[in-house]
Design a protein that fits this description.
heterotrimer; A alpha/beta (about 250); B mainly alpha (about 300); C alpha/beta (about 650); A: about 250 residues; alpha/beta; 6-stranded mixed sheet; 4-stranded antiparallel sheet; about 40% helix; about 25% strand; B: about 300 residues; mainly alpha; two-stranded antiparallel sheet; 12 helices; 4 strands; globular
Chain lengths: ~250, ~300, ~650
């Protein structure tokens, strides 16, 4: 269980003359859940998009099971089994739930993998089961999040990239989503999660990296970072006043 | 009034015009659906195809070979035009649209480029066969099959309308039922989501371009059968009319393209009956301008699904 | 508000020349850059028109004399290209029917001088007016349709006009109008078929005049507004630019050179027929604009010269010249969409210069602002809120902004559900809530980007619910954007000037005078946010933090009563957040009302007098920061419960 699935070394991504991501090195072992934390604009989403082929990588290497991913198109990377669940979900709004899930199965077939079982996925997301023929555009935020995760599962991912699964969701729904992710993790799916929600992100993670200004500022195990003062300082800014009780509950901020 | 007296005839003409436009409107709408851009070079493909049909007739005269000879000739025409038109469309996709998309070119720039390609194709045809009218002999007898209230329905008429309807049906089935058709829909709705699911937008675009080549081949053949003459700049009129038809049905809406084509054909025909011949050409253009002023996104809107904020 | 250590503040090393130089240097350099472009164009034209005199055999055109070619097609194409550039190059709309305006000018002159026997010189102005009228019509059409559809419509218009001309009796149908008399003698020049050079001189002087007029236009505040529209029409509207009027204006003014060209063409050639004014001509002129460089005077002139001259010089090209130019258009669009001179960088001629504007609309403060106001305090006082924002004491004040039961829905989805809130002058009201709760939707509804299904938006006493974005901005509602929408190809200074000038245009039309120079005010605002040393830098080259501050300066240029800030601290580090907090505090302190959307709780709590919490499009809490922090519903819904590992 300790072989490295994804090895990112010295990743650099530019937008014009500015570096959005510089010298980022991450490793993900099979079965691990890795979280990327950081403020808005720190480079987390850019990193993920670079890994799934949507951004030009101008430096560093990305090796997946020994294979070099740099320069591959997003569709090819998806066919390899690296499934990216993007920020803002991106369901296909005009297609029904069932058709969306089907797309995931197609992705597996394109990549010559056996698709996930529809019944298993629907059992996991009963809300979707009830709305199989509903157009995806009409689902709530939480339901859409479940749908894209379900779609990803139908694609039999060997590596799941999740970009801010908690975005725009009520805290209760967020808990549900992360519960599902915990389940999936227990079943052995490897995942790399970008999150702004520090608490959920670190609870899920085996290990986590913190990005700041496009670079890795810190890394460690989930629990280590959870208790780290610096993390709290980054998110609460500058002088952290420990006597203000309210500040301690404010972990959903960046 | 002329229109009322000869209503069946004008209706027939309108349907025939509409049937021709189907091949154009479908082409424009398919490309727009996938790439969200109007490909102005499309109609020039027809001109090239027609010129090959004329050329084929120069090499092979089936009139002395009986019905099988004629049949083979028609097949060969379709095949030849198929190869030529698909090849042209693929070259346009690989040489122009794909590189530009990869460079992130804006829509304006892509449309201008497609305009340039239109002229390359049209002028090439003109260089090949000259700028005069080219005539074509129908390889078979255009017999009258039946009459409807004074309108004489001939063999070619049935051929054209039937072909248009069958083609439209085939395209519709292809898009709705097949695996590939669903990829096209996915790309049309959200290219990024499609890629996230392993669908290569470039591959989808290439195949769609290829299909428009087939449409151009069939359309060119039918055009030659019906009009029996053409000239190198036929693409211009075809473009304007095809675009009007596609816009009438809502650019990007496949069934709309078909409905819009027949609708526009009828408007043109009835308009010519009412206003007289010299203004016939202008009707199309005026209809286009009025249409776009009144309903800037086409008459039949594509259903728009909205995601929750 | 620290503006001392700029290089660190901006997160990007600034060019040392800028940091050392006095404040007026960058602006002067911008001015030089723009004029260089125009001077090059004019020199090129002078060179071109002296060629017949120089009699260089190499350039001789086989069939007709070079002097004649210089008139048509070269000279005519130059005029047409300059005019077409105004619609295609500057506003990004593709006009495929430009030949129709050329025809309008030609036929007007022809008709007036043959049927009404008017002397030629009297027909010039009517020709221009008719062409401009047609341009106006096309411009109005462009308001209804956009992008690809506009191209198709203009294609249709071009064809319609040609058909109408060919079918109209009084215009001579397909035969056209002949025996158009030559102009009378002028300044020692006699016109007639035997001296084509005279027409060259006439056309040449007209081209020079048009060049200068257009160059001045592009450098003026209108020109900057056009550039803003081209870069981001939506953002321009929200910065007070009356986009609709200006687009129509561009289309109308762009018709003038065509009318002028048509007029002189008709006189020179003596006989016109519909065939000349067809799609092919429109395409060739488009090729000229596209090839040479859209948006560049020198570029389109060069393109017109190439497109006009080459087929005449190389007669073998005659049959293939349309094909060739079609290929050229396609190739240029694929590999160099900006055209030959479009992206040409004058900076390479100046040593060690920073990234700058593309040579349009340079800004020149008449005197170095450092000589006048110096301290930041003075700068802040310059940005004092409008009078009616500062009246009264804290208690008796009326709300500056009031949102009253606003409801916004898209299809079946309700994005804002019965939202009401108010902001007071001189205070900061923060709106918080999870992503997707409707915060940006709220700003969009207040600024007019989204229409309210029901409810109202009030600015002071004034109900702005049904007003367009531009007028709301001009009345005093300004904003920044969550995903930064600056006018990328314009400098920092120009970005702010666009808003400042839009404001001035509106107050001028209402009769109030404002003598402060727009450029000067822009300078002041840039200084207030610490960007004065980057004034001449292209805004898309700035760092993230600098861009956010630039957006604030630009919004302030509208002298707003209400300033809406959408996540201004996103991506900022601690120091930047501190400076931002101070800046927002100053803005509110000057009497304006600030509505702030932010995720950084510390910043929010520190600076706000009131916090409104949104979730799922509804207001779930509204009160002081302390109250909000203690509100159990807010904590449960938004902040969540602490779970223990």
């Amino acid at each position: 269980m300790s072989d490295v699935l994804l090895d990112v070394s010295g990743l650099a991504v530019r937008y014009g003359p500015k570096f959005a991501v510089r010298d980022v090195s991450i490793s993900v072992r099979r079965g691990e859940a890795i979280t990327l934390l950081g403020a808005n604009g720190a480079g987390k989403t850019t990193t993920l998009m670079a890994l799934s082929g949507f951004r030009n990588i101008c430096g560093g290497t990305v090796r997946y099971q020994g294979r070099d991913l740099v320069g591959m198109s997003p569709a090819s990377i998806a066919r390899l089994g690296i499934i990216h669940v993007p920020e803002g979900r991106r369901v296909l709004p005009g297609m029904t739930v069932s058709e969306n899930l089907d797309l995931g199965a197609e992705c597996a077939r394109y990549g010559k993998r056996k698709p996930g079982k529809l019944s298993t996925v629907l059992d996991r997301f009963p809300a979707l089961k009830a709305k199989l023929q509903t157009r995806a555009g009409l689902l709530s935020g939480g339901e859409q999040q479940m749908l894209v995760i379900g779609r990803a599962l139908m694609a039999s991912p060997s590596l799941l990239l999740l970009d801010e699964p908690s975005l725009g969701l009520a805290p209760i729904i967020i808990q549900d989503v992360f519960a599902v992710l915990q389940d999936i993790k227990k079943e052995g799916v490897t995942m790399l999660v970008v999150e702004q929600n520090v608490r959920e992100g670190l609870t899920l993670a085996d290990r986590a990296y913190v990005l700041e200004g496009g670079r890795i500022a810190q890394q460690g195990t989930g629990s280590d970072l959870m208790n780290d003062n610096h993390i709290q300082a980054i998110y609460l800014g500058g002088d952290f006043d420990p006597s203000a009780r309210s500040a301690q509950t404010l972990t959903v901020s960046a | 009034m002329l229109l009322i007296r000869e209503f069946p005839s004008y209706t027939l003409i309108g349907l025939l015009l509409g049937a021709m436009y189907v091949f154009l409107a479908l082409g424009y709408t398919l490309v727009y659906r996938v790439l969200k851009v109007v490909d102005l070079s499309y109609s020039a493909t027809f001109a090239v195809g027609m010129f090959f049909a004329v050329a084929l007739q120069g090499w092979w005269d089936p009139s002395s070979q009986g019905p099988w000879g004629v049949f083979l000739f028609c097949l060969a025409t379709l095949a030849l035009l198929g190869v030529v038109c698909v090849l042209i469309r693929l070259l346009v996709q690989w040489g122009v649209f794909q590189p530009m998309r990869n460079r992130g070119a804006s829509n304006l720039v892509v449309v201008i480029a497609s305009l340039g390609i239109y002229y390359v194709l049209q002028e090439a045809a003109g260089l090949w066969q000259g700028q005069d009218l080219l005539s074509y002999t129908l390889p078979f007898d255009n017999v009258v099959l039946f009459s409807v209230g004074g309108a004489q329905v001939k063999l070619v008429h049935v051929l054209v309308i039937a072909a248009a309807l069958l083609t439209a049906l085939a395209v519709g089935v292809w898009l709705q039922m097949t695996r590939f058709g669903k990829s096209v829909t996915a790309v049309a709705q959200d290219p990024i989501a499609a890629q996230l699911n392993g669908i290569s937008v470039n591959a989808v675009a290439t195949i769609v371009f290829g299909v428009t080549g087939v449409l151009a081949a069939i359309g060119s053949t039918l055009y030659m059968f019906f009009y029996t003459n053409t000239s190198y700049d036929v693409g211009l009129v075809l473009a304007v009319n095809g675009l009007i038809a596609a816009l009438l049905g809502g650019m990007g809406n496949v069934s709309g393209a078909v409905v819009g084509s027949f609708l526009f054909g009828l408007i043109e025909s009835y308009g010519a009956a009412v206003f007289g011949g010299t203004w016939q050409d202008v009707i199309g253009y005026i209809a286009l301008v009025i249409l776009l002023l009144v309903a800037p996104s086409g008459m039949i809107r594509e259903r728009r699904e909205l995601t929750r904020a | 508000m620290s503006s001392t250590d700029n290089s660190r503040l901006n997160g990007m090393a600034t060019d040392s020349i800028l940091v050392r130089a006095p404040a007026d240097r960058p602006a002067a350099r911008t001015w030089r850059r723009t004029t260089l472009n125009v001077i090059l164009a004019l020199c090129g034209l002078v060179l071109l028109y002296s060629l017949p005199v120089l009699k260089i055999p190499l350039i001789d055109t086989p069939q007709v004399s070079f002097a004649s070619v210089l008139f048509y097609p070269i000279g005519i194409y130059v005029l047409l290209a300059i005019g077409l550039d105004m619609t295609v190059g500057r506003s990004g709309q593709l006009n495929l029917g430009y030949a129709a305006l050329f025809a309008a000018g030609a036929y007007t002159t022809a008709l007036l001088s043959t049927t009404l026997n008017m002397p030629y010189y009297a027909t010039i102005v009517p020709a221009i007016i008719v062409a401009m009228a047609l341009g106006l019509a096309v411009g109005l059409v462009s308001l209804r349709v956009s992008g690809d559809y506009f191209a198709i419509v203009t294609l249709g218009i071009g064809l319609v006009v040609q058909e109408v001309i060919a079918n109209a009796d009084f215009l001579g149908k397909t035969i056209g109008i002949s025996s158009i008399p030559s102009p009378g003698p002028l300044l020692g020049l006699t016109f007639g078929p035997l001296n084509p050079e005279a027409y060259d001189w006439l056309l040449f002087s007209m081209i020079i005049v048009v060049c200068i007029v257009f160059a001045l236009l592009y450098r003026s505040s209108i020109g900057r507004a056009w550039s803003a529209i081209r870069d981001d029409e939506g953002a321009a509207a929200l910065m007070g630019v009356r986009t609709r009027r200006l687009k129509v204006l561009a289309s109308m003014i762009g018709g003038a050179p065509a009318g002028l060209a048509g007029s002189i063409y008709a006189a020179q050639v003596g006989y016109i027929s519909p065939g000349t004014f067809g799609l092919t001509l429109s395409i060739l002129v488009l090729a000229a604009v596209v090839l040479g460089g859209r948006g560049r005077l020198a570029g389109v002139i060069l393109g017109a010269v190439i497109v006009g001259y080459l087929p005449e010089r190389f007669l073998a090209l005659d049959k293939v010249h349309t094909l060739l130019f079609g290929a050229v258009i396609a190739i240029v669009m694929i590999f160099r969409p900006e055209g030959l001179l479009g992206a040409f960088d004058w900076r390479s001629l100046l040593r060690r210069s920073p990234a700058g504007s593309s040579g349009m609309g340079g800004a020149t403060p008449r005197a170095a602002p450092t000589e006048r106001s110096a301290s930041v305090a003075a700068a802040v006082s310059r940005t004092r809120a409008p009078d009616d924002a500062r009246h009264g004491d804290r208690e008796g004040r009326k709300p500056m902004l009031a949102v009253d039961h606003a409801r916004v829905a898209f299809g079946g989805v309700v994005a804002l559900n019965d939202v009401s809130l108010t902001t007071m002058p001189g205070t900061v009201t923060s709106v918080i809530g999870p992503n997707g709760a409707g915060k940006t939707t709220l700003i969009n509804a207040v600024t007019g980007v989204y229409r309210l299904e029901s409810g109202r938006v009030l600015l002071g006493d004034h109900d702005v619910t049904h007003e367009a974005s531009a007028s709301r901005s001009l009345e005093g509602i300004a904003r920044t954007f969550q995903n930064i929408r600056l006018f990328g190809k314009m400098t920092a200074l120009e970005n702010v000037m666009v808003a400042a000038e839009a404001k001035r245009r509106s107050t001028a039309s209402r009769g109030r005078e404002d003598h402060r120079d727009a450029a000067e005010e822009a300078w002041t605002l840039l200084r207030e946010v610490g960007l004065q040393d980057l004034a001449a830098v292209c805004s898309d080259q700035l760092s993230y933090g600098a861009q956010r501050r630039l957006e604030i300066a630009r919004a302030l240029a509208l002298d707003p009563k209400v300033l809406l800030l959408d996540e201004p601290a996103a991506g900022a580090n601690t120091t930047e957040k501190r400076d931002l907090t101070r800046l927002i505090g100053n803005i509110a302190g000057s009497g304006r009302s600030v509505l702030l959307i932010e995720h950084d709780m510390r910043l929010v709590m520190e600076i706000s007098s009131k916090v409104v919490v949104l979730n799922f499009g509804k207001v779930i809490a509204d009160g002081s920061p302390e109250e909000i922090q203690r509100d159990p519903e807010v904590i449960a819904a938004y902040l969540g419960e602490t779970r223990h590992v």
